[in-house]
Every structure is written in C-alpha cells, then in structure tokens.
Design goal:
Blueprint lengths: L2 H12 L3 E6 L6 H4 L2 H4 L10 E5 H17 L7 E5 L6 H10 L3 E4 L6 H10 L4 E4 L4 H6 L1 H4 L4 E4 L9 E2 H5 L16 E6 L9 E5 H14 L7 E4 L6 H13 L2 E5 L4 H11 L3 E4 L1 H13 L14 E5 L5 H10 L4 E8 L4 E6 L13 E2 L4 E5 L12 E6 L6 E2 L3 H7 E2 L2 E10 L5 E6 L4 E3 L2 E3 L1 H8 L5 E11 L3 E10 L7 H7 L11 E4 L12 H7 L14
Parallel strand pairs: 1-11, 3-4, 3-5, 5-6, 6-7, 10-11, 10-12, 12-13, 13-14, 26-27
Antiparallel strand pairs: 1-2, 8-9, 9-19, 14-15, 15-16, 17-18, 18-21, 20-21, 21-22, 23-24, 25-26
Length: 545
C-alpha cells in the first residue's frame, strides 16, 4: 500500500485528531504567526512558536499542492525538488508531490548554490520548491535553474524569478487527484551524504517508502497513543522514515526546531512525547547537562517517555550505559541503514536486546544480511568483511550513474561499504567504514575501535580518528579530540590513557579541536583530513543514513 493511501486513511478515520505539531521555541519567528488563520486549528493553547494541523488538514494541503502541480503540467514520473527547513508545510508538500505520481526529490538544506544546481541537473527535476532561507542560493543560478523548470517559493515576498506557493495553492481543489499509484511506481530520489565531492542520486520505488513505514511501526511497536519527537532534518531519510512509523500507526508527531538539551526535554515534557530519536551529540549534551547540574531531570514531565533510539552513526556503548543510569525504565534501540536502503532499520538492535549494546543488531523486518570478503564470498561467523543487505527497501539504482550502481548492487544485494562482523548469537557489529580503514605499516586499523576506547575517558566529549600521511608507514593514526566544556587534558595524559591499547592502535598524533558534524550528526572526516593534510590519501565517503 503506497504511503499516500495511509495519509488518506488517517484523514478519513482520524480527521479531527492532531497529526503534526511544529515547535520553534529557540527563535522568535514573528513571520510564522501571520499564518494563524491559514495553518492553526483550535487547540488548548496558542503560542507564537507552536503550530498544529490535523490529519484532515494535512491531507487537504497535500491535495491542494498536488492539484497545483497537475495544473501546471507536472505528470507521473516528473521530479519535484524540495529545499526547505523543517516546518509544518514540509510533509504536506512532500505528499502532494507523491499524490501526483511525480518523484519527490528532497534537497539537503546545507547545499550551496553549486550543489543545488548540480543536484537539480543530475536528478532532472522539473520543479523546485524552496523557502525564504534559500533565496540567495537559488538566485545565484536563477537563469539556469528556471530554464525549463518551475520555481515555487513558499513564504512572503516572493522573488521575481519564482512563483508564490501561497497565491497559487489557495484556489486549488482539496480533493484527492485521480492518479493511480502502485508500489512499483518510482516515488523518491534521495542523495547520498555527500561528505566528499558531490552526492549521488538514489532512486526508490513506492515499495521502499511503504516498507520503511511498516517496518518502523513494527520495530518500535508504535500505536495511536504514541507521540514521536522529530528533530533531524526531514530531507534526510532517517527523520522522514522514522516519522512514517507514526503515519502508519495514525499517531501524532512533533517537529522540533532546535536541539539544545532544555529545548528537547521541554518539548518531550510539554507535548508528552513517548518516542524520541536522538543523534549521538544531542544525547551526550543531555547527559552532560544532567552531570553538571545545568538541568534537573525532575523539572520535566518525562514519565511517559518510553523509547529513546539512536542512528546515523556508531553509538558508543558507554553512552547508553550512562543513559540508562538516568533513564533505567527506557527502552532503547539502535538503527542502522543507508539512504540506499531507505534509511534506518535494515539492521536494528531491537528494543528487547539492550544487553547487546554495541552491536548494530540483527536484520530488520523483511531484510537479510551477509558479510563477504573481497571476492564476494561469505566469511565465517566472527570474521571481518563487508556488510551486505537485501530487502524490499533497496534502491533501484543511482540515477544516471550505471557504473556506481554496478559497484554496489549485485544480485539484489546492496554492498554497504561498511566493515562488520557477526557474533555467535547472530548480532552484527560495525568495525568501520571500508573507506575509513587506516592501513599503517601493512596493518588494518579500524578507527571506530580506537574512538570507542578513547570515549571512555570522562574528559572527552567527542573524538574522531583519521589517517594522516606518513613517509614510512603510509598512514599514521591521528586522534582529533574535543574536550568536555571546562575540562583540562594534555597530550601526555591521553598518551598515557591510550597505553592500554595495542601499540599499533595507539594514536601517533593527538590534536585538540572541535569536531565537525553534518546535519545528521555524522563526523565529517573528509573535512578533518583536508584540514590536516590528508588530501593525497584515497577519497573517503560515507552514505550511512
């Protein structure tokens, strides 16, 4: 069942119930209050930073946008790009695209003008929908972007090179368009993380979207009584497909702008959220706020919060151990995935397996996994190799890139580029990214193992281990260290701390500085390599969701 039918069902069965809440407490955005008549429904309170829509309004907004697009000549198989920050309009616009039979193409809001142009041309988009924050970037290539494309602007004061969403949508029908959509139709193009170079366009069928929605609901036992807190950007497969579990269950979700510990905890408390997906840095910040006394857990209403899960990057076991000390009744899950596998969940720990923290888990609902060597032969249990996954959420291809597709898709198996191993109970463990492995003096060194060890030092907030050029060894290990606020630590102290590691794993260089992370929380190792003179090493790229 395509996800558009889930939205129609929810509007029909739960029309008057709240579907989405937008919270923006960290910014005094008076512009948004002017939308009160158009976007707000009656609720038990009104605050300038809180906006709400019901399932019925959600569906009507999607229908209006679908009919707008159809009226402008958009047809089945066309591509419509979305370049917006998280807001109450994002998902209705996304579903409006899907209802036309067109392909939704979310853009990373961090793209610069060159990347926007590149992705628009790579994916052959016919329409770009964008918000006010992106006027300057779109304007830079407005002549080229508008050539054969419709540019739709979603906010006030529409620039002269675009057309106004608000003006166009008002007179569009709120009835569902009569377009037949099947699971075998193409539904979306997502882009690889693009942590080095330009990203690749990942084409998915509607089957991938519906698989992700049902899988998320099953994995986390989501019911209509749950409220999901969504903080990461909706352009990313992780945020969107975790939310689709709420769509599948017909339950409420909160879109939160801001990731400060107090902002997150206040949202959970005020909106009575039961499920929260965090990135590692946000979980670390919350624990640090509790540890230092900046925040008191008892000042928030958190008893209804039943599940905290994490994805997008390897999770230090020490972090979850500390988390469960503050939240002993929490269920916990780790979700592994790639944009090529429709985001998170092709491997997941499982809420019942907290004893196995450190593993990424077992195959997700309707997924298979295997580990292979360099000759594509399955390795023995316990041996290290490349993780491969197979299931109904695997991408169709890299759009307009047959060579790259052949490299990662073989007989229905997606080769993830992640090095992993499986224990005797069948749980999978990430060892490292294949392209992040450091080869030093002929030895394979896996940075994640060193990072997990260094994080045990309570003065360390974050760590990234990279390979730097070495004339004798080829590569040497360097540990980039970000300290906890107010902590003091010397290179000599860390050298002493790392003596517990085997000699070949000990960092040969220690650098104290802030560690860059992208919008989904992943460490941008390419930036660190460039900053520290590793540009001549093999290009390295991650596509984890």
């Amino acid at each position: 069942m395509p996800v558009t039918e889930l939205l129609e069902r929810n509007a029909r069965l739960y029309g008057d119930e709240v579907a989405l809440i937008e919270l923006n407490p960290e910014q005094n955005d008076t512009r948004r209050t002017t939308w009160k008549e158009y976007d707000l429904i009656e609720s038990n309170r009104f605050e300038p930073y809180r906006r709400v829509i019901t399932w019925e309004v959600f569906n009507e907004k999607a229908n209006r946008f679908a009919n707008l697009l159809l009226g402008r000549g958009v047809k089945k198989g066309d591509k419509v790009a979305i370049l917006m920050y998280n807001c109450l309009e994002w998902l209705p616009i996304y579903f409006g695209v899907l209802k036309t039979g067109a392909i939704a193409v979310p853009f990373n809001f961090r793209y610069d003008a060159d990347e926007i142009l590149y992705c628009a041309e790579l994916a052959e988009v016919q329409v770009i929908v964008f918000g006010s924050e992106f006027i300057g970037r779109i304007e830079q290539y407005a002549d080229r972007l508008s050539r054969g494309r419709l540019l739709i602007y979603t906010d006030d004061n529409c620039p002269n090179f675009a057309e106004s969403y608000r003006e166009m949508v008002q007179n569009c029908s709120s009835s569902s368009p009569d377009i037949e959509i099947t699971d075998d139709d193409f539904g979306a193009i997502y882009f690889s993380s693009g942590t080095t170079g330009f990203p690749k366009a990942i084409l998915h069928k509607h089957q991938s979207l519906s698989q992700a929605a049902e899988m998320e609901m099953r994995h986390h036992e989501i019911t209509r009584d749950d409220t999901f807190l969504c903080i990461p950007p909706l352009y990313h497969t992780g945020a969107k497909f975790h939310w689709m579990g709420s769509l599948c269950a017909g339950s409420k979700a909160v879109l939160l702008k801001g990731a400060k510990p107090k902002t997150i905890l206040s949202a959970i408390s005020n909106e009575r959220c039961t499920i929260v997906w965090l990135l590692v840095p946000w979980a670390q910040d919350i624990l640090e706020a509790f540890d230092t006394g900046k925040l008191n857990k008892d000042d928030f209403h958190l008893s209804q919060w039943r599940l905290m899960h994490i994805g997008a990057q390897p999770v230090p076991p020490s972090l979850i151990k500390r988390w469960l000390e503050y939240f002993p009744d929490h269920k916990y899950d780790t979700n592994y995935g790639l944009s090529e596998s429709t985001g998170p969940g092709c491997v997941h720990l499982g809420m019942e397996n907290v004893r196995k923290v450190g593993a990424i888990g077992v195959p997700g609902y309707r997924w298979q996994c295997k580990i292979v060597d360099e000759n594509d032969n399955e390795v023995k249990q316990g041996e290290v190799g490349e993780l491969c996954v197979k299931g109904p959420g695997v991408m169709t291809c890299y759009y307009n890139n047959e060579e790259a597709t052949r490299e990662v898709l073989k007989d229905g198996w997606l080769y993830t580029g992640d090095v992993a191993k499986q224990d005797e109970e069948g749980f999978y463990y990430l060892v490292d990214r294949k392209k992040d492995v450091i080869v030093s003096g002929g030895e394979n060194i896996y940075p994640v193992q060193i990072e997990d060890f260094i994080r045990k030092n309570n003065k360390i907030k974050d760590v990234a281990v990279i390979g730097l050029p070495d004339p004798r060894l080829g590569e040497k290990t360097a540990a980039i260290i970000e300290l906890v606020e107010g902590a003091s630590c010397t290179k000599e102290e860390l050298d002493e701390f790392c003596m517990a590691l085997p000699r070949y794993k000990r960092p040969k260089e220690i650098i104290f500085e802030e560690i860059p992370r992208n919008a989904t929380g992943k460490i941008e190792k390419n930036k660190l390599r460039a900053m520290h003179g590793a540009d001549n090493l093999v290009e390295k790229e991650t596509s984890n969701a």
